[in-house]
Design brief:
This protein has 2 helices and 23 strands. By secondary structure, it is mainly beta. It has a 10-stranded mixed beta sheet. Strands 5-6-2-10-12-14-17-22-20 form a 9-stranded mixed beta sheet. Strands 7-8 form a two-stranded antiparallel sheet.
């Protein structure tokens, strides 16, 4: 009677080994939604919000509360439970932050961050957004009239409208701004390192615009008569990318 060689079992053993090693990657993603309603303590309460693991959308509405919708998504249930949303309230500020502890998964138990959070926040009209930031994800502001600092690392930034003494920045991403108001442009700084900047401005807005790019062109399509009126300055800079200014 012939004896089976141990080598003949290697393919099956190897297949089982691979299935164990990559089993977490084969699992369906887990997702959940959480919603919160927060009432500011007073008219001077500001909003600070940071999403380190996903995109952020802020939009103004005519209500008196901050309405938050967080859509969490992860590679598995364990990773989903590792996603945290922290809310801190005081008379001066409401602070919202996301975080995720690395989860050890797979045969080799390597620690990985495998989740995202999509944040949508409705902000009372007139409330100050003191800071809004992301690490890996886009930022969009729609109708937020008062904001101070908008910052991304890896992601595009879209802002409408501009705000006095505001700062917009990203490292890797395009910046698009829109400002329909007539009269003086607000003083604002807009910057990116790797990406273009596009500004859509009212043809009746006045003010100085200062542009700077290292590797890219600058195209200003506004009426030259209005370029040096009162308002601004709007400072726009990029290292690798074009700068375009369009009249609305």
């Amino acid at each position: 009677m012939s004896k089976s060689s141990p080598n003949r079992r290697l393919p099956a053993v190897s297949l089982a080994f691979l299935l164990l090693a990559f089993a977490p990657a084969l699992q369906a993603r887990s997702a959940t939604e959480e919603s919160f309603s927060i009432r500011p303590h007073g008219p001077d309460t500001v909003l600070r919000i940071s999403n380190s693991i996903g995109p952020l959308l802020l939009e103004a509405w005519d209500g008196e509360t901050i309405e938050l919708l967080a859509v969490k998504s992860a590679s598995n249930d364990n990773a989903l439970e590792a996603i945290e949303l922290t809310i801190r309230e005081s008379e001066k500020a409401i602070t919202l932050e996301t975080s995720m502890e690395p989860v050890r998964t797979g045969l080799f138990r390597r620690a990985r961050t495998q989740g995202t959070v999509d944040l949508t926040v409705r902000v009372p009209a007139g409330m100050m957004v003191e800071n809004a930031s992301t690490t890996n994800g886009s930022i969009s502001l729609a109708g937020i009239a008062r904001w101070q600092r908008i910052a991304a690392v890896n992601g595009r930034v879209d802002v409408d409208p501009l705000s006095e003494n505001g700062r917009i920045s990203t490292v890797n991403g395009r910046v698009t701004v829109r400002h329909e108001a007539h009269g003086k442009l607000p003083a604002v700084r807009i910057s990116t390192v790797n990406g273009a900047v596009v500004a859509h401005l009212s043809p009746k807005a006045t003010g100085e615009i200062r542009t700077s790019t290292v590797n890219g062109r600058v195209r200003d399509e506004r009426d030259a008569i209005r370029e040096h009126g009162e308002g601004g300055p709007v400072r726009i800079s990029t290292v690798n990318g074009a700068i375009t200014i369009h009249p609305l």
